[in-house]
Design brief:
By secondary structure, the chain is of the alpha/beta class. Helix content is 40%, strand content 18%. The protein has eleven helices and twelve strands. An eight-stranded mixed sheet has the order 1-2-4-3-5-6-9-11, with helices on both faces. A two-stranded antiparallel sheet has the order 7-8. The protein has a two-stranded parallel sheet with strand order 10-12.
Length: 296
Amino acid sequence: MNSSYLYINDLRVHYLSWNADSSSMPVILVHGLASNARIWEKAAPFLADGGLALYALDLRGHGLTDKPDGDYGFDTFSRDLTAFMDTLSLEKPLLVGHSWGAMLALDHAARFPFGPLSPAGIVLVDGGMTQMDDLPGATWEQTSQRLAPPRLAGLAVEQFMAMVAVGNDTWKPDDQDISIILANFEISEQETISPHLSFEHHMQILRSMWEYKTYERFTRLGCPVLMVPAAPPGSHLPEQQAYLGLKERGIQYAEAAIKKLSVKRMVDTIHDIPLQRPTELAEIILQFSQTVLTTK
């Protein structure tokens, strides 16, 4: 794994790469909201062993990338992603996005259905398959309160990790998982955390997600699409059940609108599939990449 920086759009962008000297299909790995490029660290070696050239960037405001003020909507992240591709000469990559990163992959594919910027295919890992305002009774006020991030700045690392462990009966983070999770924060000399993504930027992104018309983007796609939804284990609270129903409805919309769609469900799996099931996820992505190559 290599760690590098490049300058695009007046922004210093940090990214990780594996097997970058390979002449095979490039793969751009896009993390989720308030996450960072290292979430792909466990799956990437398996993908690289499969011959893929991998690039995982810290998005604007996240990880080790710059965190300027200004707009944090889809247009801004689209410009960053296309500049990243241009600078590294990554034509027709496979785009793999997790959570909000899946929405960014979907958005890019909808903006560029043809040409060198168009992806060879997109993989949507438990994201990019729902539309927030399609949840019955949802309003921005209610959604913003439900999804606003907790105020973690100043919390002791030990306290934070105790919070992470709560409610994860089927998945216990190992040392590598803990290191990846803590990479979402700046850690002070006093062993307290401060999120890399500010509360204000987080809420800007949430608002852009609320306004995003996912289902309409399905109709614009020209590339193969793989959806990898997660279904958490155990009985579900009413709020969880409503969200799972929303995902299934989104998949149904996708099946009606997307000509080249595959769906691989990951049952008994938490939302952060790249951490809990990295090997299985890598195998699914590798199989999809081979399908993309044979249908080009």
